Every structure is written in structure tokens, then in C-alpha cells.
């Protein structure tokens, strides 16, 4: 995705390279500019004039928020600081989802842990109502200590998941292989904190310890750079003209493929593409470089 990334990697370490990875750095805006609470309004706390919020989870309810608009392609990111300490059973989520029955969805899900154990980041992609494309990684940092940026790039050619501008997953458009790809259903952006102790931590073996409540996740940097559309739109008027449609964003560049390879080798703990017990036959999209 451009020579800038290559220059950064030559001149800097991975940590500082991430700062110059994307020439189109997002401008932080207040929560209310693009988002509204979804449920349990009293479990959302506002700070710094609405530039930072906290989601609270207790034994009665979690909470969440969603974008005011729906978007068909674009770049979406959020700075999140995960629930600290004993967060077993909790899920902190950042995802895009369409409104129809055969919905499309692009998921970041952060699975809580017992104190001293690493967080697990699960990603998933639903197309035409079909999901079951989970990948799981450990992060190379403690996501509870500071804010980190989680981003989704979505265009006609690929979906890319980023952590601090490091690509951790690519889902390629494989329509030629008979795999549906999200291209005609606008999506809203959702964020939530909720209890999922029936599956989230060690397959549901570790239950939520409500004596540690409230569980708190913090958010800021409410960035949206997408083509806004009505829920029923099949295309955007500016489709093909925005920066994410340009040739340099239709694939990762060599340096980014190296970073993705690093994540796969060092931090991946589950990939549905290599789960032969679950999928004796390789899912068609896994034939592409993206999800292998």
C-alpha cells in the first residue's frame, strides 16, 4: 500500500514505523459526531468533552454504541483500551454489520482473560449470512495498559484488519471461486461490551467473576472515512473515486505482507483455514493468500 510503508520500515523500528504507515491519518472527533448509544445509556460514561467514553458492564447489563450512518466501503478505526485485570467471560467488540437477514459482518472481538493470561483477539467475516471464518491471535502488547488503534479497510478487492497499522488479516474478494463478498449492503459500525461467559474464555470454562464488576473498556478516536449510503443502497455515487479504491489499496505491499507473515508465525493460535477437523475440504477463499 505504497512506498511510504517501505521507507518507514527501513528507517524505523516496527513500533515507530506504524506511526507513518498510513499517510491519511485520521482526525479524532467527538463521540457524538458520528455515533449514538445503542442500549443501556446509563452504562456509557463521557470524558474530555465527549472525546473519550467508557463502556461499563455489570451483572445486569452491558452496553454499546453504533454509527449514525451506514457505509458502503471505507476505512474505519477506533482507539480502545481493554478491560483490565480479571476480565474472563467478557467480550469487547468493534465491528461492521449490515441490517438484512443474509447479513454481512466484519468483526473484531476481544475475549477477556483471567488475570495474568493474555487477551485473545478473534476476527470473523460474514458474507451473505455465512460466518464461521474465525481467526484468533495473541497480541504483542498488553491491550489493557494503553490505547491501541484497531482498523478495518474495506473495498471491492479486500478486507484488511489492522492493529496499530500492522495488518493481522486479509480477506480477499473471491467471487470467482464462488464465495460471496460484501459489496452491496451498507453497514453500520458497532461497539459493545457484553457478557459471553458461555464461550468467550476457554470455551466457557472460565465464568465471569461479578465481584470484579463493573468491567470497563475505554474508547476514543471515533474515526469514520466511508461512503455513506442508505440502508438499501447497492452502490455509492463516488464508488471507484475515493482513496481506498485506488490501485495501491487493492493489495498489501511487500512490507505489509512481511508484517502479516510475522503475525501468522508468532501470534496466530487458530485459523479456520487450517482446521481440517472442522473443514475436511479447504474453504474456497482459503486458496487465496489472504486467509491462509
From TrEMBL:
Record GO cellular component, one term: apoplast
Pfam families assigned to the protein according to its UniProt record, in alphabetical order: Glyco_hydro_16 (PF00722), XET_C (PF06955)
UniProt cross-references to CDD domains, sorted A to Z: GH16_XET (cd02176)
Processing and modification events after translation: Contains at least one intrachain disulfide bond essential for its enzymatic activity.
SUPFAM superfamilies documented for this protein: Concanavalin A-like lectins/glucanases
Catalytic residues as annotated in Swiss-Prot or TrEMBL: 105 (nucleophile), 109 (proton donor)
GO molecular function, one term: hydrolase activity, hydrolyzing O-glycosyl compounds
Domain GH16, first and last residues per copy: 18-219
Top-level taxon of the source organism: Eukaryota
EC number in record: 2.4.1.207
Annotated signal peptide: 1-20
PROSITE patterns: GH16_1, GH16_2
UniProt subcellular location: Secreted, Cell wall; Secreted, Extracellular space, Apoplast
Single GO BP term: cell wall organization
Family: Belongs to the glycosyl hydrolase 16 family.
Function field: Catalyzes xyloglucan endohydrolysis (XEH) and/or endotransglycosylation (XET). Cleaves and religates xyloglucan polymers, an essential constituent of the primary cell wall, and thereby participates in cell wall construction of growing tissues.
Record-given protein name: Xyloglucan endotransglucosylase/hydrolase
Amino acid at each position: 500500500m505504497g512506498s511510504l510503508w517501505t521507507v518507514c520500515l527501513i528507517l524505523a523500528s516496527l513500533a515507530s514505523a506504524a506511526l507513518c504507515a498510513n499517510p491519511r491519518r485520521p482526525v479524532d472527533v467527538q463521540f457524538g459526531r458520528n455515533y449514538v448509544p445503542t442500549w443501556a445509556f446509563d452504562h456509557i460514561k463521557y470524558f474530555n468533552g465527549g472525546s473519550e467514553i467508557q463502556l461499563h458492564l455489570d451483572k445486569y447489563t452491558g452496553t454499546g454504541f453504533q454509527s449514525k450512518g451506514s457505509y458502503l466501503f471505507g476505512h474505519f478505526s477506533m482507539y480502545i483500551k481493554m478491560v483490565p485485570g480479571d476480565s474472563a467471560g467478557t467480550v469487547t467488540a468493534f465491528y461492521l454489520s449490515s441490517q438484512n437477514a443474509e447479513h454481512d459482518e466484519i468483526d473484531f472481538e476481544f475475549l477477556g482473560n483471567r488475570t495474568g493470561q493474555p487477551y485473545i483477539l478473534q476476527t470473523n467475516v460474514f458474507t451473505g449470512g455465512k460466518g464461521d471464518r474465525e481467526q484468533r491471535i495473541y497480541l504483542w502488547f498488553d491491550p489493557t495498559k494503553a490505547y491501541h488503534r484497531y482498523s478495518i479497510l474495506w473495498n471491492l478487492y479486500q478486507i484488511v484488519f489492522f492493529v496499530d497499522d500492522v495488518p493481522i488479516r486479509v480477506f480477499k474478494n473471491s467471487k470467482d471461486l464462488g464465495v460471496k463478498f460484501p459489496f452491496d449492503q451498507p453497514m453500520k459500525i458497532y461497539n459493545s461490551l457484553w457478557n459471553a461467559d458461555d464461550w468467550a474464555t476457554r470455551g466457557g470454562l472460565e465464568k465471569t467473576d461479578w465481584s470484579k464488576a463493573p468491567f470497563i473498556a475505554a474508547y476514543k478516536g471515533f474515526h469514520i472515512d466511508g461512503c455513506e449510503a442508505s440502508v438499501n443502497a447497492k452502490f455509492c455515487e463516488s464508488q471507484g473515486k475515493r482513496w481506498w479504491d485506488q490501485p495501491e489499496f487493492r493489495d498489501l505491499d511487500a512490507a505489509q505482507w512481511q508484517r502479516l507473515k510475522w503475525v501468522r508465525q508468532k501470534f496466530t493460535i487458530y485459523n479456520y483455514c487450517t482446521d481440517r477437523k472442522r473443514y475436511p475440504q479447504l474453504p474456497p477463499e482459503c486458496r487465496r493468500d489472504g486467509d491462509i
